[in-house]
Design a protein that fits this description.
heterodimer, A: 100 residues, alpha/beta, Hypothetical Protein Ychn, Chain: A, 4 helices, 5 strands, globular, B: 118 residues, five-stranded parallel sheet, 28% helix
Chain lengths: 100, 118
Amino acid sequence: MSTLHIVSSSPFQTHALQSALKVVLKGDAILLIENGVYAAVDGPEMAQMLAGAADSSRVYALEEDLNARALPSLAKHVIKVGYTDFVQLVCQHHNSVNWS
Amino acid sequence: MKTLTFLARQAPFGSSSAKACLDMVLASAVFEQQVNYVFLDDGVWQLVRGHAPDGIGAKNTLAALQALELYGVDNVYALDESMSERQLTQAHLQIPVRLCTRAELGAMINASDVVTAL
């Protein structure tokens, strides 16, 4: 039993990502979409925030949203996925939670 | 002539704020007002070069940033701390901007006739 945590708002603007990270369990996955992909930017603050989560769960970011926003550089632990992977991730996990 | 200051604070996609702000800036410039266009918080993401929004079904409306010069909007600023928080430098940006500090922005707002933030 695992959960997919979908984060869709910017970590610079809301606490959605922080809220999600509080309840993430080992084996869960985090998927960054829409303005949530800004959490994938390579920088000390975000790296620190996601470092703990990346140890026990996978962190994905939707490629289409990354491309649209032209992020300068991506954090190493972030895995790029497309729309079909998004569907697969939803199917693979027992539950999905939307953090907006 | 009045001094109008526009504060762009939202990310480029996900809402129409970025486009609305740019439209207001260009309209104000047409009416020959003194315009300050300031990007801060997630608004600095609007300036990043290489947006490719086809995959998310959005339009690259911010390509029109290039038109600012044409419209005589010379006072384009980005808040330095918003840039550094996001690991952005001038090299990542589509158009040249002047970096300003929080104190300078405060003074600019104070000296404006109208301030619009969105």
